[in-house]
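user: Please supply your own:

assistant:
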Amino acid sequence: MAFALSLHMLAAVIWVGGMFLAYVCLRPVAGALLEPPQRLPLWANLFKRFFPWVWVAIIALPVTGHWMIALMGGFKNAGLHVHIMLGTGYLMVLLFLHLYFAPFQRLKKAVDAEDWPAGGKALNQIRQIIAINLALGLFTVLNASGGRFLYG
């Protein structure tokens, strides 16, 4: 159980922490200091480095989560916070899959073509999805850490 929980927490920290850094810290600075010809390649390259880690996380989180549920005796023994965590986690995965296969691909193509208006549109879609996923991720972390005390 300790190994599964450690991997689970590490994957969550990498994914949610990465979104927090990108959205809360880097986005305002990049927007204030860089014009689209510099800003859009920065984001495209940042995502190229970050998204492989997200892929690891979206595999590790469900695997370790279901592993821990099995070790606890199945869903009937899992608290409400675990069920909520599963729901928000799978929603986050679905949102990431959309982000990766739609607006991120458009961003890469726009940057390669130096089509800054199209790249800006794609980046704005990515920003919106990351905002939603960050909120879900922070809620999920709060639920995971304190939910068993709230829901009994």
Residues 81 and 144 are 6 Å apart (CA to CA). Helices lie at 2-33, 36-71, 80-101, 103-113, 116-151.
